[in-house]
Amino acid sequence: MKKKYENNLDMETCSNGMLEVKNLTKRFGTNVVLDNISLTIEKGKTTVVIGPSGCGKTVLIKHLIALLRPNSGEVYFKNRRIDNLNENELNRIRTHYGFLFQGGALFDSLNVTENIIFPIRQHCKITNWREVEELVKAKLAMVGLDGFQQFYPANLSGGQRKRVALARAIALNPEIILYDEPTTGLDPIRADVINELILKLQKELGVTTVVVTHDMTSAYKIADRIIMLHNGKIIASGDADHIRNHPHPVVQQFIKGQVSEDDLAVLRMSGTISQAQFLPRDFE
Amino acid sequence: MIGIVGAKTISGVSNMGQFARFVWQSMIASLRSCASSRTYPLIWTQMNIIGVRSVPVVMITGAFVGMTLAVQAYDQLAGMGLEEHLGILINISVVKELGPVLAAVMLAGRVGGALTAELGTMNVTEQIDAIRSMGTDPIRYLVVPRFLACLLLTPVLIIYADLMGIIGGHFVSVIQLGINSRAYWNFSANGVELWDISIGVIKGFFFGAAIAVISCYKGFTCKEGAQGVGRACTEAFVASLISILALNFALAVIFKAIYNTFWQLKSLV
Fold first, then answer.
1. DSSP sequence for B98-147
2. Is the CB of A102 less than 8 angstroms away from the CB of B126?
3. In this model, does residue B54 exceed pLDDT 70?
4. What's this model's pTM, rounded to 2 decimal places?
5. Burial readout B169-188 (b: 16 or more C-beta within 10 A, e: otherwise)
6. For A274, B36, B199, B241, which has the most beta carbons within 10 A of its beta carbon?
7. Could you give the ipTM of this predicted complex?
8. How far is B126 from chain A (nearest CA, A)?
9. Does B269 map to a domain?
10. Residue numbers in A near B129 (CB within 8 A)
């Protein structure tokens, strides 16, 4: 078993990275979602992965925690290859991670306290419940939701749900936190609250952070490094200024939120809206 | 055409393999969990949801099976002057076949549907991925308590169904159709052996296990969206129903062979 953990190819090239992806390819059927991707996530830094919807951002982040397995390529966590481990071995590794899912993925049959206690209950021997309650209170205070302990997810707003999910993600004091579209579906103010939280957690806990988003305001605010995915490949990588001034037209189009000429041509060809407005209505 | 058949065959075999792997993992995780006190509260909760809350529906099913059998069989037996033998017919049918099978079918609808819908919704809302991301095996946390609750409580529910079937049959035969109660019970006692009751209860373990693994598997593999969950529930019920009928047939053949080989030796001894 120990051999498996040490089954890494070049320790020296991995040593600076908390996470390392080498030549990763992922296909679903004949659709190549990630095409020979290599990247290093540096320890203590915030890496933001941007790209249009459907470009494989979520697939990439799920590979970083081995929720998905690659068709080819390797994924390393602290120099340990994790993509070929079995689920039992992975469960030990995953306790070093926190993962914020796009919709929060809170357990709707459990209240806020029970949701946050879940990972603690699974991996720690609880001898003093008062201590656990204090811990839940502290985690909720970090995300600004102390007092919501007895609420159920159904009674929380979208932003509150994400913050509770974040409190659950940091319950075991992870070394790395992965965020999947943390600001999607939130109004600009709530989105900024989440951005501030990400910065606060990174500063206070010193965690390594990976954020997948298509929200450029969020990306510029929190990123030490931005990576852009397009058609399954990395087409740009660097700090916020580097991305702002990147010469690649697709990068410029994405960060400025401009529609492409191809898309406009399709819209022009699809006919006029007035042609569709004269369909007979049948209310009976 | 050949390509389509080939693709369907590969997909079918792949699904079978995936299901077999899921069953194997569930069995292993169940055995391990028996030794872990951490799982007991989860099993207890599921026993309440799956077992205790199913008692009324299973008892009603059993009672109607017994009563219907009495009404249907009376005319045939009375025509031959054998109406007092009605007890054997009803009680053997109830404890050996109809009680276990119909109770299991009711459970497949009530419990299996709920399991698939619950786990399917958890799957499409990424809650199962969330469990994995927190370093917990979702099979151990979600499937094992449901599997053990179904496995252990389906036989108990079958006993309830049998009991109500016997009472229902007696009610119609003796009170409504006027058969002599003493004769009814005497013929029943002579005709129904402990073996007959036992095989009905033993079938319950197999039916319970089948309902649990099929329903949980369909929940774990359901497609995205409300339609995906609905479809998974339908598939789970149909697959459970067919499994119950197929298992019932297979177990009937096996138990008959065992009976013919061993049980008759008892009378010689």
1. IHHHHHHHHHIIIIIHHHHHHHHHHHHTTHHHHHHHTT--HIIIIIHHHH
2. yes
3. yes
4. 0.85
5. bbebbbeebebeeeebeebb
6. B199
7. 0.84
8. 5
9. no
10. 62, 67, 101, 105
